[in-house]
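Appendix C. Worked example: Alpha-catulin
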Amino acid sequence: QITTLINHKDKPKRSDKTLQAIQRVGQAVNLAVGRFVTVGEAIANENHELKEEMSVACIEARRAGETIAQLTDVASLDHPESDSHITIFTDKTGVVKAARLLLSSVTKVLVLADRIVIKQIITSRNKVLATMEQLEKVSSFQEFVQIFSQFGNEMVEFAHLTGDRQNDLKDEKKKARMAASRAVLEKCTMMLLTASKTCLRHPDCESARINKDGVFHRMRLALEQVIEIVTDSRPNGENEMVPISIYSGIKEFKNKVEGLRENLYFLSKENLSTMLEVILEHTEDFTDSAYTSHEHREHILELSKQAKMELEQLVSVWMQAQNQKTKDLMEDLEVAILKTCQCMNELKREVHSAATSLAAELLKYHMDHMVLKALKITGVEGNLEAVAEYTCKLSEQKEQLVEMCRLLRHVSGTEPLEITCIHAEDTFQVTGPQIISAAETLALHPSSKIAKENLEVFCEAWESQLSDMSMLLREINDVFEGRRGEKRVYLSLPRPGKHNANLKALKPVKLDTEEQAKIAKLGLELHLLTSDVDSETEKWEDQENEIVQHGQGMSSMAYSMYLFTRGEGLLKTTQDLFHQAEIFATEGTKLASALHAFSDQVHYDDKSLLLLEAEKLISVCKQLQITAKASVQGKSATFTKVDACILKTRNVMTLLCQLLPLCCKLLRKNKAGNGCLKPAPPWREDRIRTGTNVHTPERRAETFGIKSLENHVTNMTFLESK
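Step 2, the predicted output written as structure tokens:
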């Protein structure tokens, strides 16, 4: 909105609509700043150590917002008495200064708020650690129950704080690491409960003590990693060393090789040779592995040898081309580049096949959990000899699965999946010995119900990780085959060539500067409508309501279409926009269906009104769909279609702005839900909802195991009675 104000073109003739649009933008900015500052002031009141800094930043922001509102108060310009009134037209530098002050002060507020959030997470972690120390030293069962109840509540708080932080992280790698650490904490909470109970019931049992110590140690490591991610630092200032995978090595190597087409001098032959050596060293993880088939091993060795030969040929032609740029030499260089890249692609395909075929085979073989079942049976029987035999088999299985994770990491294709492989490897590495110590404890105390329960918990963790590996394998294959990997920010990202038979006939084009200027006003109106819709959806208490979800999804897509009118965002071409418009219209039709279902819950008098509005929505969505699917040719016709799509999207959003408050009112009136309007929550709970895909995996990534943790705490009363 600020950018729109600053970039607007001064024209001698100003229509009433232009003046009203400018005034609306100024008011919208001021209102948004007011809401933002109110939250900032609430934060300041709760955190006295930063109160002064935060208050100053909030005052600056509020002042800048009011200045922008004053300078854009241009509706009265046509009246003579307003000639002396300073506006954006008479003092554009004033708007620029106010905008700079606003952005500066808003940034200060965000940075200060972020410091507070980090402090909250650290404080929460410290409370958890302190309670863990008490749990480790506890000697009576009754005391343990009381302290564990407190520990459970603290873990729930930590789960909420870190869950919010995980959702806010922009770095996918950090997000994956945070998810892995929080998964460890979730599983270990139940393990800590049963392992501690077993130790209290059998205080002289060495295997029970080892089992419990392992859980505490793993939880401390996970807590430490969360703080490293949150504070973006490591102990002693050391850098995190993540081993390079074969995939990432090949990708970088190919980029350098292909870069020779543009510049023959940007790197040395020694650099390329070193990069290939590192890749081939990593392939030894496959060729040296006892679990790699003979066929795969031979193919990898052959391709490694071929890669060296292709690089030698490439370097030879490259060096000649540096001295003499003839047409023949440049053609030879192109052939050498293609052959080298093709060889690396074949190597990548071979290691992928080796890793995934091994993983599929192992997961299928171990999915019956025969070793775990045998350990449970022989443990209850108190058969120490049989338990020792099956623990050896479990150790072998662990080694196989650890090796599988190492090989899969090399071919995972993305950094988040690499981190997931590393996490899986650690889980098998740690959980294996813990199952063994739990089984030994049960074998020594075969009648102990708590020892049996403890072994069950660790076996469940193992089975759960095996199940996760099946999902991980599918994701790795999806990335390799190009079905996954692109980041989806909005409800639907158009992918040209799919979904629409007409797309092949269309040449994907972008709007030029003149076209962007023509459509800017319509785009701005669309932007203001998305703000209105977002404000309406925030008023609903039940954010999972189907009507709210469709409304949020439509607002998100409309915003991406607004960004397109500015030449920004993820919709790069007119073809992208048309496909987005189709999906937007489909989502509107789904909303209309939800309104029909909702109409059955309201009084008869209200039902007819709601159905009438739903029919209007269906009608405008159909119009938009027809427009988006219409085939056009030529620059002028394409722009006309773009204009029509944005206009019809605006019409849908205008109707949506009327529908949402109506539904909210009817819901409240009929008391069909738990209430509609939210009370003003504390700032920590007032999470700003972003325009992300309401159906994406990110949406499902809620705070870790909070329900299960709360169940642990609730069950403490029953536990104490036992």
